[in-house]
Amino acid sequence: MSVRVFLLDDHEVVRQGVRRVLESDEDIEVVGETGTAAGAAEAIAAARPDVAVLDVRLPDGSGIDVCRDVRSSHPEIACLMLTSFSDDEALAQAVLAGASGYVLKQIRGNELVTSVRAVAAGHSLIDPATTRRVLEELRRAHEEAEGVERLTPREREILDLIAAGRTNRQIGTELYLAEKTVKNYVSNLLAKLGMGRRSEAAAYAARLAERRALLARDQPPSQA
Length: 224
Fold this sequence. Notes:
Order of helices and strands: EHEHEEEHEHEHHHHHH
Radius of gyration: 23 Å
Largest sheet: 5 strands, parallel
Distance between the termini: 46 Å
Helix content: 55-70%
Shape: elongated
Strand order of the largest sheet: 2-1-3-6-7
Number of helices: 10
């Protein structure tokens, strides 16, 4: 079966290398390529490939967003995410965007050819166990975010200080509150979060901070 492929990567050298690898298989044809997220979904639709090989991180956006746009408008086009970094957050977003595979650029040439042919044939390279784990993580993250939304600004501030290891007395000193008042705040925020111990709240706040850091890291750099 002949397979038509579109390439999205901001590095021309990478695109040329991937093109050579794929077209070494006589049944694979690269029918288009681009280096930016802007207009990529439209270019892919116009080229009518069987598979779009998409770089995850681009200077002006994300290949995952392109994947989501392509899959929503043209579900017959399979998307294979290609990235330099192993990233659970990006993998989770790729699963939700409808990607059929998520592979590292360190992949061997013959393995990339096999992967492209597999997703073109309708197979998923993301195993069900990984999908379940990712969706469970997202469900948990959503529940945690909902919990934070129930807190007042002062309760969020105190939660952060709990995560930093502060005692009620230290929190009171830092926020100019009576220790008894801090204790009441702590009791209220624990009740809202459905927790019984400060240690649970501290671990919860640490997870939220880690997730915020991951999201900040994955944002594309601002353009001067």
